[in-house]
Amino acid sequence: MTGDVTNLRQFRKRQARTAKEKQAEQNRLTFGRTKAEKSVTKALNEKTAKTLDHGRLDRAGDDGAPDRNKP
Fold first, then answer.
1. Is 62 a domain residue?
2. Where in the sequence does UniProt note compositional bias of the Basic and acidic residues kind (predicted)?
3. pLDDT by residue (tens digit) across 9-57?
4. Number of domains composing the chain
5. Ramachandran region, residue 3 (left: φ > 0; alpha: ψ -120 to 50; beta: rest)
């Protein structure tokens, strides 16, 4: 007639821990990237920024403000 006594607090904690582990695994699959992938992305971003900066047209003394002395 008597079965195993289950501590509900421990059962809830175990259940919550299992749910968190499942969520963590899903996040690793969705968002996780290897160090090599991150370094490749960083290198590409730096190269793009460098290319854009080198193509920028800068005029001597041009700070982006309009010149008030010109007609």
1. no
2. 34-71
3. 999 999 999 999 999 999 998 899 889 999 999 999 999 999 988 877 7
4. 1
5. beta
